[in-house]
TrEMBL record:
Catalytic activity of the protein: (1S,2R)-1-C-(indol-3-yl)glycerol 3-phosphate + L-serine = D-glyceraldehyde 3-phosphate + L-tryptophan + H2O
Stated name of the protein: Tryptophan synthase beta chain
Subunit relationships: Tetramer of two alpha and two beta chains.
UniProt cross-references to SUPFAM superfamilies, sorted A to Z: Tryptophan synthase beta subunit-like PLP-dependent enzymes (SSF53686)
Obligatory cofactor(s): pyridoxal 5'-phosphate
PANTHER family for the chain: TRYPTOPHAN SYNTHASE, TRYPTOPHAN SYNTHASE-RELATED
EC number in record: 4.2.1.20
A GO-annotated cellular component: cytoplasm
Tryptophan synthase beta chain-like PALP domain segment(s): 56-378
Pathway(s): Amino-acid biosynthesis; L-tryptophan biosynthesis; L-tryptophan from chorismate: step 5/5
Family: Belongs to the TrpB family.
UniProt organism field: Roseivirga pacifica
Amino acid sequence: MNVKVDKNGYYGNFGGAYIPEMLYPNIEELRENYEQITEDAVFQKQFQQLLKDYVGRPTPLYHAERLSDKYGAKIYLKREDLCHTGAHKVNNTIGQILLAQRLGKKKIIAETGAGQHGVATATVCALMGVECIVYMGEIDMARQKPNVERMRILGAEVRPAKSGSKTLKDATNEAMRHWINNPSDTHYIIGSVVGPHPYPEMVARFQSVISAEIRKQLLEKEGTELPDYVIACVGGGSNAAGAFYNFYEDNDVNLVAVEAAGLGNDSGESAATTVLGKPGVLHGSKTLLMQTEDGQVVEPYSISAGLDYPGIGPVHAHLFESGRAQFHSVTDEEAMVAGVELSRLEGIIPAIESAHAFAALEKMEFKPSDVVVVNLSGRGDKDLETYIKWGKY
Ligand SMILES: *Cc1c(COP(=O)(O)O)cnc(C)c1O
């Protein structure tokens, strides 16, 4: 199947760059330069070196025997939870900070919802000694106090977005406004495979190290590079895009994307975009989007802050529409149960985002010979309070 981005930034019917004219020069500068810069041998050498020595890559591909027994398949976990800062997000922020340097940008801005992308951005800015401003909704700042303080310890300035619902979309608007006003010295680090072209493809390429490693590691362990299934959770979709990227053209590899159904897809409290969404434009790209009849964005809900997003990256809208990936949705309760199950069977407490991917195992049927890779996108330390509040363990 062709999942390549075309020259206008489309995956099938989705993608593109729907931006205000004021932003055009910034996006154009990126579009014209990102491939040449990131494919350059010196860039790649520095990127790979940092992934190895700073992030701790390659992350292990771990055969989870007790989990395998339970579900009747050979299940491997891709351990992105062991990355520095506790999740896959840092793969992308390392790539983008190196890109920003090559573009001669002296300052970094980012937006963050739950704070995880803000922390990953503040981390690489500290690493490179670059000024960092993170926009965050005022309500999110109150809800995610520890991440606000992490960013501050790392030397970033956290600026509250005080308009609208005071959450992620307002922080995104503020970041865009900042960028329009400071185009020449500032790079905007987007945290998932969303936003105007070339961001979705650029972020996917930085994250594609995940599936590149899976192929190598499976060859060593199974004598073949190809699993039968790759399962990953989807918020914006960057960990999933990274885990799928090098398998798009291997049609025997089943790609499984898992969205958050919150309190249930009929409850009005969900974030399952492929179930509830319709085509629309969000954050600069055409994609599937949860919206009202007249096109107002519907506030999503999930127990997991990282999946609480009203859209999905355009590549996932295309994977859904074309049938190349199957999509499941998982409720808060199912995810929490799966998170505790992984903790008890394997001694690994997952991020609640990642727990959604594990909950899909329950909804699937396997043959004993099936090789299944679950992308364990992050660790559960940040979610301890949510586990405690849920309490059923
Ligand atoms: C942010 C986050 C996600 C969701 O983001 P994607 O871009 O969909 O990967 C998933 N898992 C963890 C641990 C996260 O921090």
